[in-house]
Amino acid sequence: RRSGRAPRSDCPALAALGDFQTLPLEIFQMVLNYLSVKDISMLSMVSKTISGRLINYISTSSGSRRLLLQDFHQELPARRGGASILEHYRALGLLLKRCTLLLPTRDRLKYVHKVLSGVSCFKLNGCASPLHCLGLQCYGVFLQILTAGWDELECHRVFNFLWELSNLARKVQTVVSSKPGSARRLELRIRLFCRGVLLSPGSRRSDCAFWLTRILKPWPMVNQARLLYIIFGPVSSRDGHVVWQKMIEGPTDETSLKGLADAIKLLYGTEAREWTADDVISLVDELSVVPQEWLMENNARLLLLSGNSICFTFMASKAVNGRAVELARLMVFMVLVCEKDLYCMDWAVRMMQKVCKVFSSPWERNNFLQCLENSFARMLMDMLQAVLAGDRDEEDSSFLNLFHLMNAQASFHKEILSVAMGSSSSS
User: Fold this and answer.
1) N or C: which end of the chain has fewer CB within 10 A?
2) How far is C-alpha 373 from the geometric centre of its chain's CA atoms?
């Protein structure tokens, strides 16, 4: 009499398949086509034997077609279409993480590379239209899930593997040693690869700090600044290329500086253990002359966006090193930015008070305050001279600058008087 149970097997590997041992391999793979990637991922944890079969399935042509979606240039709305393919690769990252769980890191990376090598949009130069492609972002979320929870040594191996695979060392050397903008396409490719893959949006701050450190640390400080500008600096809305003259030609806005400021905050934070305060200050100093000396207003705006801690540390370093004139001029531009960008002026006064405490003697402090007033006077005279000379453009910027500076000075001194009068009345 026939039994309704599956035939028993004395082979442990087949027994580990459970009821699937009755199915031919072809039928087993057909069943997988009806499961979601998340379901296949759960199935991979049932046994080592099933996990092995899934690894084989992923490597087949039908498995690749099923799992390696490549509609990265779809015309669907970004929220609906973009989110779905990103979620797909997030789930695929978890599937490969589970399937390769028992393999050494090197073997895991080789297998993952073998699986993904046919996707051209995952390569640094693989896509003909990188600005309209979700490929690198999908690769980024895939790696983010795959490497989640890996220790630092394993992540070092991941970085070295990707760096060598994409030949990034030679390419970065080309862009940081060439004239800015002379290799625009390569600058764009490096920017998109680093931001999409290594600094994947949604990553934890500690992970971003680790990857950004790996990108920057091998290079001298001057090259670090160039590379930071390539990855986070302002770009053209027309073609996505880095705009090198943005900080030199005129005052810029917060949007152009936000990426750089966020990167500086990340490196200055507790997550970036390999960076000292002096390292970050030196990097900011070096950044302010990329590719030439920035307008002081743009320096001040970057420091304001970088946060109180880095702003104070940067200014205190100038006070300690006896650069009172330079510090005073920077303080004036910070006051101007507070006026233009609608920050509370009492922030500037409190910052000035903190910086004054850094000076080692009353004479040095008084000298700084004198330099501050001289800087206000000199800037007002220069702007007034520009207005009287009739140097006006379509936006009448010379008159507008004078208007902003006069308002800034008035607001700043009003806050100082308020603090002074408050102190005298309380005493």
Assistant:
1) N
2) 38
In whole angstroms, give the CA distance from residue 349 to residue 120. Answer: 54
Asked if 274 contacts 283 with a C-beta cutoff of 8 angstroms, the reply is no
Query: Can you list the alpha helix ranges (DSSP code H) found in 204-361?
Result: 205-216, 221-232, 246-249, 254-268, 277-287, 296-306, 308-320, 324-340, 345-356
Nearest to 291 by CA among 202, 178, 398, 378: 178
264 within 8 A of 257, measured Cβ to Cβ: no
Q: Mean pLDDT for the chain?
A: 89
- Under DSSP, the state recorded for 397 is H
Classify residue 235 by its DSSP letter.
B
Please tell me the distance from the alpha carbon of residue 277 to that of residue 263, in angstroms, as a whole number. Answer: 14
CB-count burial class (<10 Å; 0-12, 13-18, 19+) for 403: middle
d(CA 322, CA 368): 10
Burial track 89-126 (b if 16+ CB lie within 10 A, e otherwise) = bbbbbbbbbbbbeeeebeebbebbeebbeebebbbbee
- Residues present in the chain in total: 427
pLDDT per position as a tens digit, 98-143: 999 988 999 999 999 999 998 999 999 999 999 999 999 999 999 9
